[in-house]
Design a protein that fits this description.
single chain, two-stranded antiparallel ribbon, Glucose Permease (Domain IIA), alpha+beta, ten-stranded antiparallel β-sheet, 2 domains, 26% helix, 31% strand, elongated, 207 residues
Length: 207
């Protein structure tokens, strides 16, 4: 009788251990499944964030780099333009006249905020003795350089959204006669283009 009870207790113990192991396995599987769902959820969120990063979309249209009522001080030199415009598309420095490679904007010789014309990545920040501080932003295959800045509000490698504050307009030695102004240079595939011609266009619409 004693032997029978001992064997019976042993069998019950094995059954109990089996149930416990099954229970632990089910719990572990449930926790693993929840963790996988969490990972997938985080991955989807990260993917959405990446899709929303500045410079990703071709649907943004270029805007003016300021919000005040600035005026164009110097035009981009293009021989096909009207002669009356070309007269104001040449820069004199140390007695030498050179075609303007960008557009200069001013606001009654006052400091004004400079904003990003399009979303993108800040790839270079310089402080040049002639051109003043400058920031170059890459938006797809287009490079926009904002020069003659008195202050810079971004950092290299930073992703910025359209309208983001780049810095403040200032003065430079190269075109000191303009006083406080902003000089904008635009390039696509190594070729200079007229920044003013970009306004209202999407990158996908550029030739």
């Amino acid at each position: 009788m004693y032997v029978y009870e001992r064997k019976n207790n042993k069998a019950k113990s094995l059954i109990t251990i089996g149930f416990v192991m099954v229970f632990l396995f089910v719990c572990a599987f449930f926790l693993w499944q929840q963790n996988q769902e969490r990972i997938l959820s985080v991955s989807k969120q990260e993917e959405n964030v990446r899709l929303q990063l500045p410079g990703i979309s071709y649907e943004e249209a270029f805007v003016l780099p300021y919000t005040i009522n600035a005026t164009t001080l110097t035009h981009f030199f293009d021989s096909s333009k009207d002669p009356s415009i070309l007269e104001n598309a040449v820069v004199e420095f140390e007695g030498v006249y050179r075609p303007s490679q960008g557009v200069d904007y001013g606001f009654e010789n006052q400091v004004f905020e400079v904003n990003a014309m399009l979303s993108g990545e800040v790839i270079e920040i310089r402080d040049d003795s002639l051109m003043g501080k400058s920031v170059t932003v890459q938006s797809k295959e287009v490079l926009i350089t904002y020069q003659s800045l008195s202050a810079v509000s971004v950092e290299e490698g930073q992703q910025i959204a359209q309208h983001a504050l780049i810095g403040l307009a200032g003065e430079n030695l190269y075109n000191s006669s303009l006083g406080i102004h902003l000089h904008v240079v635009a390039e696509k595939e190594g070729k200079l283009i007229d920044p003013a011609s970009l306004i209202g266009l999407k990158i996908s619409e550029l030739e």
